[in-house]
TrEMBL record, chains A, B:
The keyword Metal-binding applies. One of its GO terms (molecular function) is prenyltransferase activity. Belongs to the FPP/GGPP synthase family. This is Probable farnesyl diphosphate synthase. Keywords: Isoprene biosynthesis, Magnesium, Metal-binding, Transferase. Its cofactor is Mg(2+). PANTHER family: FARNESYL DIPHOSPHATE SYNTHASE. PROSITE patterns: POLYPRENYL_SYNTHASE_1, POLYPRENYL_SYNTHASE_2. One of its GO terms (cellular component) is cytoplasm. The keyword Lyase does not apply. It comes from the Bacteria. One of its GO terms (biological process) is terpenoid biosynthetic process.
Length: 304, 304
């Protein structure tokens, strides 16, 4: 595996800027120029939660999956914004004292620190709700059939059978360590579901045939697994550094991960295998899939 | 104004039973008979939050608004279930320690008491998400155009320009008392938006013409105002009883209400006026609107 090319880094950054610009507009003063009073304090908290300088990897996957099949870039940007609202609402709620109790995210105070707990709960709720507003809004240049399919897929990726369900399993895992199958299920739901949705969304936006849809979903599943494995490896490295030792079993975290079960060498081989399989899935598209393939590598190799 | 007829009470109760039955099925073991693992603990918390023996007034309004215009009763029941999920998610989150900090609701422990805070946050998030799942699901017998319109209207009634925004204004009102216009805005958002949506939903489900849609929306606005005024009167009575005195200015609650500003006699006259205006709006439908008119009276006269 190799580091990303300058071209890829620029493309990822350009997509992140376009997304920030859209979200800032949707949650900005101009969006309030109607008869509805949107409390300024709540809007500020929503902006704090979502305009956080993230890499915007999920919206990038929506954009590139859509581009692979010649779908509308404008629609992909809006669906990416909706997806990022869901991702960021989950971060705002996960950071709450009753959940992970984190005071900092990307070096900035978390929403309940910068505002207060009640405002953070409401800002998260509002970001989640706004995601569906964005999908269904007239400004999203898709058919009602596509919008309905996207609402359903996003709700299922986010809800009790997806991300929120995975988060509940994660809380339970702090008390009773899950077995390997349990870890796989937890991770597929908690982080995998939104990443898979990102790729599936491209197929829906581009009105893909069943074969293309199946390939993009399968690609999303592979890179969702890779994302989590890379995350676990990063945690291990961070722990090792923090503990001043070069190896570790991750037992200190009190939660099982596949890396903790099988070791770092296994995880690195598994990552290579997942990226190769993801690449293989997109082979029928030839060089058109180059950016998505590079995204898979980026996900596996990322160091933050 | 008169008490509701036995016929009305039976109809309201039958609708509540049908709704509980649908929601119980949607969140029951049968709904899990697929490949997706839905954490049992989270599902139980969602059921605790939503299967709470409420009057189900909002779903009833969806059903009766739909019936007025000969729309699909099956669709109305499912949209009512989605709306109730949104209403109940807001109760679960409002009861949290960081918000209203309530231990009991309808005589039962609130979700964060019966489970824990983290589970209550996730159960609320999941109920909100599930609402959009229900609207968009293939089982909802509506066109994609209708589903898209309902998703958008529900998201706007619930989000930062609707219910959640009203809740944020309500929190702010505990620090700085709003003026009369501020109170009206707060209430229109916090409680009015979902009630208006309930009536608007009937028009969307029945594919109503613009004139019928306008009437149902206006009707929803009137009874939303009446609902809040009746609530404020109930609070006053409850406070008076708790404080052992028969009159009161509601100043003890630390929040302004229109009843506190203008007094009980004014509020009772205003309620009568709102019900009369609501009735007038539906006059073109003759006796077909009898149940909705009785619902308006029920909302104004309710004692719990």
């Amino acid at each position: 595996m190799q580091d990303e090319t300058p071209f890829f880094a620029e493309r990822l950054q350009a997509a992140a800027l376009a997304l920030e610009s859209l979200l800032s507009g949707l949650l900005g003063p101009a969006a309030q120029a109607d008869e509805i009073a949107r409390p300024a304090h709540l809007l500020e908290a929503m902006r704090h939660g979502v305009l956080n300088g993230g890499k915007r990897l999920r919206p990038f996957l929506v954009a590139e999956s859509t581009a692979l099949l010649d779908g509308s870039a404008d629609a992909a940007l809006r669906i990416g914004a909706a997806l990022e609202c869901v991702h960021c609402y989950s971060l705002v709620h996960d950071d709450l004292p009753a959940m992970d109790d984190d005071d900092l995210r990307r070096g900035q105070p978390t929403v309940h620190i910068a505002f207060d707990e009640a405002t953070a709960i409401l800002a998260g709720d509002s970001l989640l709700t706004f995601a569906f507003d964005i999908v269904a809004a007239p400004e999203t240049p898709l058919s009602d059939r596509q919008k309905t399919a996207l609402v359903l897929a996003l709700a299922r990726a986010s809800g009790h059978g997806g991300m929120a369900g995975g988060q509940a399993l994660d809380l339970a895992a702090e008390k009773t360590a899950p077995d390997e199958a349990g870890i796989v299920t937890l991770q597929a739901m908690k982080t995998g579901a939104l990443i898979r949705f990102a790729c599936e969304a491209g197929a829906i936006i581009a009105d893909a045939n069943p074969e293309d849809s199946r390939r993009l979903r399968a690609f999303g599943e592979k890179i969702g697994l890779a994302f989590q494995l890379a995350d676990d490896l990063l945690d291990l490295t961070a722990d090792a550094e923090a503990m001043g030792k070069a190896t570790g079993k991750d037992a200190a975290r009190g939660k099982g991960t596949l890396v903790a079960l099988h070791g770092q060498a296994w995880a690195e081989r598994e990552l290579e295998r997942l990226v190769a399989e993801a690449e293989e899935l997109l082979a029928p598209y030839g060089t058109r899939s180059a950016v998505l393939v590079e995204t898979a590598r980026f996900i596996a190799n990322r160091r933050s």
